[in-house]
Design a protein that fits this description.
alpha/beta, TIM Barrel, eight-stranded parallel β-barrel
């Protein structure tokens, strides 16, 4: 049977052929199993899991150990998709050697297939070192959540000429540094189209319009399973918060009213064993 695993060359071929790339997040085994079986091309173990799963206010507190734990859970489930692990804040900025060590942990311990690094020019030294070490790197420009929360919050980027040029320069520099793909987040559609046309590597959009080579969403947003923060660019395909909340409420009511468990949910023993126990 032919190897159906999605790899960096697969994504590059999809761009050349005009086939759209699909990417979603996953942070645990059961969700990764569902996403992979649905035929999604790339699974991102995002540091967004710090907010959606671990309950942090931002992605900044997420640690390497927490990211590795989530990555290991995801890779145990995946058979086809390419698994990309987000490198958390301050795991690659200090010096290239540390960036390589941390990226290596995602591949060696987490069994990820690639890592993702935010920002352009400030991250180039780390990106080059990781790529030279043989580890595929996905870039991320535009709105970069790890640093945006420290500067101005979550706002659309690249509307002015200078800002747009800066994002384009970042994308071109990352391609030259060797990344295999770039996430474009929260930028005008026209800018995303220009970047996508200019680059030979695939672009994955999130809030970047329809002309990117692929699209990514946070799965918890897609499923309506995280209502603390809902960016404009997300699309909700289900309302699991309501579905799960209703199910939990019904369970509580059934227990309180003695409707659960019923005989069908219980186990029996031989009547003679029961009588013997009662006579003791």
């Amino acid at each position: 049977m032919a190897d159906q695993r999605v790899r960096t060359v697969t994504l590059q071929q999809m761009k050349r052929e005009g086939r759209k790339i699909t990417m979603l997040t996953a942070y645990d085994y059961p969700m990764a199993l569902i996403v992979d079986r649905a035929g999604i091309d790339v699974i991102l173990v995002g540091d967004s899991g710090g907010m959606t799963v671990l309950g942090y206010e931002t992605t900044i507190p997420v640690t390497m150990e927490e990211m590795l734990m989530m990555t290991r859970a995801v890779t145990r489930a995946v058979k086809r998709a390419m698994v990309v692990a987000d490198m958390p804040f301050m795991s690659y900025e200090a010096e290239p050697a540390e960036a390589v060590r941390n990226a290596g942990r995602f591949v060696k311990e987490g069994l990820a297939h690639a890592v993702k690094v935010e920002r352009g020019l400030p991250s180039l030294a780390g990106v080059r070192a990781i790529v030279e070490a043989g580890i595929p790197v996905m870039g991320h420009v535009g709105l970069t959540p790890q640093t945006a929360v420290l500067r101005e919050g979550f706002k659309v980027q690249g509307r002015g000429l200078d800002a747009a040029r800066h994002i384009l320069d970042d994308a071109l520099a990352l391609e030259k540094a060797g990344v295999f793909s770039i996430v474009l987040e929260a930028i005008p559609s026209a800018l995303a189209r220009i970047i996508t046309d200019r680059l030979t590597i695939p672009t994955i959009g999130i809030g970047a319009g329809p002309d990117c080579d692929g699209q990514v969403l946070v799965t918890h947003d897609l499923l309506g399973f995280f209502d603390r923060f809902a960016p404009k660019f997300t699309k909700q395909y289900a309302d699991l918060t309501k579905v799960i909340g209703d199910a939990v409420s019904r369970f509580r009511d059934d227990v309180v009213e003695a409707r659960f468990p019923e005989a069908a949910h219980a186990f029996s023993i031989d009547q003679e064993v029961e009588r013997a126990l009662l006579e003791e």
